[in-house]
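To: structure desk
From: M.T.
Subject: fold request, one chain
Message: Could you run this one when you get a chance? Sequence is below, nothing fancy, just the single chain.
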Amino acid sequence: MKLRMNFSGKNESPSRRPSPRATLGIGLALLALQLLASPLLALGQQPNASEDQVKAAYLLNFAKLAEWPRQVLPDGPSSLVIGVSGANEEFLDVLKAVVAGKIIGTHPLLVKPVSSEEDMKSCHIVFFRASERKHTQGAIEGVAQAGVLFVGEDESFLRQGGMINLVRDHGSVRFEVNSDALDRSQIHFNSKILALAKGSYGPSHAIAQDSPSPVEATRRLERSAPPQYPEIAQRMKLTGTVQVQAMVKPDGSVKEVKILGGHPLLADALAHAVMQWKYQPAPRETVEVVKFSFGPQ
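Reply: Done. Structure tokens follow.
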């Protein structure tokens, strides 16, 4: 799924909680989708934000949505620290303005420049500017066991051990993830958040050989209802076609839904509706693909 955010202005330098079940409900999961689908929500919907402001908003949203091990970020009033490696004063000022006055849980946000591994070990997030590409891999290897979320903006960042990379694409800023590095860090995100990434770097997870694979099919619908057009999507004037994949049990009920494409707010609305659908029974589980177009009524 592609995640787009327009920007304008100068081109700046380039204890663990259980994961929610993938039933694609509403509540916190929907809020998380909104945050990463539109990072400028963190900027008060500024329509002409610069690239640096968009990236700063992403860092704020990652801080809101990540779950650190309790020993790394214990309960209490300690600061959640965002360090920037290779930062100039302009970017630091932008990031400080974006996080000013923000508190995540009981943790006020603190922004600081970092230039050594010892500096980075005192952070919860470290953002590597592209100018630091020659030093990135060594720094990550030296801090790998410290429970730090590594975010970058260089095309080689994930190959160097980074966890999340911010990338430019046709006037937009999107993010991609190294799921293997995230797993090793014990820093966790809701699976729906990771599904919004442009791409993933790292080994794929094999399906157990003793689990029969579902077959692709087109089963007749016995009960369905169209998705609701989310109010926030209407306010943002979001339109377009979305596509999801439904895993359907032999009895016709929907087991789970995977988003294949479209804007995340619209796709989540379709997925929530499809979870309530009922197909005709079949001898085994099947995979059904559903498309829906959202637009003004």
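Reply (cont.): Residues 215-294 form a domain with the TolA/TonB C-terminal domain fold (CATH 3.30.2420.10). Let me know if you need anything else for the meeting.
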